[in-house]
Design brief:
GO terms for molecular function: translation elongation factor activity. By secondary structure, this protein is an alpha+beta fold. The chain is built from 13 helices and 29 strands. It binds guanosine-5'-diphosphate (GDP).
Length: 506
């Protein structure tokens, strides 16, 4: 068997408001990792003789559902998140499979509505996040102002972990505060960093009690202890390290890659666990047909394995397991717990399907399509037309968002997949359209699962969100209608094996 070291995997995504530099950063990361031989440019019209090659290479890798690169002994899977970040169940779904994220903000434009939306989703999903202020070399770059905005809007624990020299055309470099040696020990990057270390210690002590005790008691805190605390708090999502870059010039990119490997967490789950994974995206390939992008939480898949699609209740044979390393795909033959790859041969697979058993997949991950409806109304009755127009606009951006408007009753219903969507929607309606909306109690829509004897659905209780995935019997005549969650969670109608799950989760 191949050597599999799960602690050396990072599954991360880069998110940003449009134009903040996501594409440029991705390109430079892949370039830096040595996978892309030559560097393309985002700006159109840059004539280069080998442009086609570059375009092809970077077209495949930068926009791939998942592309892997090696850095400092780690395999980093860079997972693409959809461009439409405003209000999308697809975004929610794709963020859920990340173990860590990089949120890029422009040093010129600062925090945008999109940035806040993304941050809310990352925060709600408790995804450890690094924040990068990019375009430090641009005229008008104002990192101090942007940091203030970040502190105000993002309400997180943002901790600067770098020092930078100059801004705009004088922006030359970022200075990391520490280096981690091969043996794991920490060395201060320069001698004159006392101020930065003190500031870091103060921020971390707000979250780390043991550190606070020592700090207040005047005990010396070693550099190593400080950086270990930073790592731990970042991985718990309690603080967000702040970095700087000029991605267009490649400045700050190797330091960002170090931070990904050092500060963001490795995936959980083990090869010995039962096979358990989720399909988060589908790709199509002329030769291979459907390629299911699978995030595996437990177990292992090897070429020619017959694997179970839990959601469909079918078994299919895996023909190939493909990974994209910047620019080229290859059959790697095996997919291990914690890792991500394209699985070929599953002709019936759909996005959101569970592979193997659902054991290691958390209930929230299992959501695939809208299963709840909720009534929406404006805070001011006079705002009805504006609310309808705003929601219609958002529906166009998100194909999964389903809006039903009953003009006579003046009732507006929407299908949603989760509580985060409601939170994000509230926020977007406010910030983009200046509208406040109120939501009624969500109603469960049940969904038929073809192979199983029962029906799966999701229960959602207010005001404290709580989820359950259940199987229950449907009485004749109930088909096609919505059921409110309270009417569904009747123990006698739950199929065997699901009672405990209800007790646990609801
Ligand atoms: P995306 O929409 O977030 O993917 O942003 P892009 O990576 O496409 O960048 C948008 C524009 O900003 C492009 O014209 C880039 O060349 C430019 N850009 C990206 N990063 C930087 C940077 O660090 N400095 C400067 N000056 N321009 C940048």
């Amino acid at each position: 068997m191949m050597d599999h070291n799960q602690s050396a995997i990072r599954n991360i995504g880069i998110v940003a408001h449009v134009d903040a530099g996501k594409t440029t950063t991705t390109e430079h990361i892949l370039y830096e990792s040595g996978r892309i031989r030559s560097l393309g440019r985002v700006d159109a019209g840059t004539a280069q003789t080998d442009w086609l090659d570059i375009e092809r290479e970077r077209g495949i890798s930068v926009r791939a559902a998942s592309t892997a690169f090696q850095w400092k002994g780690c395999t980093v899977n860079l997972i693409d998140t959809p461009g439409h970040v405003d209000f999308s169940s697809e975004v929610e779904r794709s963020l859920r499979i990340l173990d860590g994220a990089i949120l890029i903000v422009s040093a010129v434009e600062g925090v945008q509505a999109h940035t806040e939306t993304l941050w809310r989703a990352l925060e709600a999903l408790k995804i450890p996040t690094l924040i990068v202020i990019n375009k430090m070399d641009r005229v008008g770059a104002n990192p101090t102002g942007v940091l203030k905005e970040l502190n105000r809007f993002l309400s997180g624990g943002i901790v600067p972990v770098q020092r930078y020299s100059g801004t705009e055309e004088d922006f030359r470099s970022v200075l990391r505060l520490w280096n981690r040696r091969g043996d794991g020990t920490v060395a201060r990057a320069a001698d004159d960093l006392q101020e930065d270390y003190d500031a870091l210690l103060e921020r971390l002590a707000e979250q780390d009690e043991a550190l606070l005790d020592d700090y207040v008691g005047g005990m010396p805190v070693s550099d190593e202890r400080l950086i270990d605390s930073l790592t731990e708090l970042t991985r718990q999502g309690k603080v967000q390290p702040l970095l700087y870059s000029a991605a267009g010039k490649g400045i700050g990119i190797p330091e960002l890659m170090d931070a990904i490997v050092e500060l963001l967490p490795a995936p959980a789950g083990r090869a010995e666990d039962p096979l358990s994974g989720i399909v988060f995206r589908l790709e199509r390939d002329k030769a291979m047909g459907k390629i299911a992008m699978v995030r595996l939480y437990g177990g292992r898949i090897v070429n020619r394995d017959v694997i179970r699609n839990y959601t469909l209740g079918t078994d299919e044979k895996v023909t190939q397991i493909r990974k994209i390393h910047a620019g080229h795909q290859e059959d790697v033959g095996v997919l291990e717990a914690g890792d991500i790859a394209g699985v070929c041969g599953l002709s019936r697979v759909r996005i959101g399907d569970i592979i193997g058993s659902p054991d290691a997949v958390s209930p929230e991950h299992r959501l695939t399509e809208p299963l709840l409806t909720v009534q929406v109304s404006p805070a001011q009755a006079a705002d009805y037309p504006q609310l309808v127009a705003a929601l219609q606009e958002l529906t166009e951006e998100d194909p999964l968002l389903d809006l039903q408007w009953h003009p006579l009753e003046r009732e507006l219903h929407m299908k949603i997949i989760g509580p985060i969507q409601l939170e994000v929607l509230t926020h977007v309606l406010q910030s983009r359209f200046g509208l406040s909306a109120a939501f009624g109690k969500p109603t469960v829509i049940y969904k038929e699962t073809p192979s199983a004897e029962g029906y799966g659905f999701v229960a959602y209780t207010m005001p404290k969100p709580c989820w359950a995935i259940l199987k229950f019997r449907i009485e004749p005549g109930e088909r096609g209608s919505g059921l409110s969650y309270s009417s569904v969670v009747k123990p006698e109608r739950l199929l065997p094996g699901y009672q405990n799950e209800v007790a646990r989760r609801v």
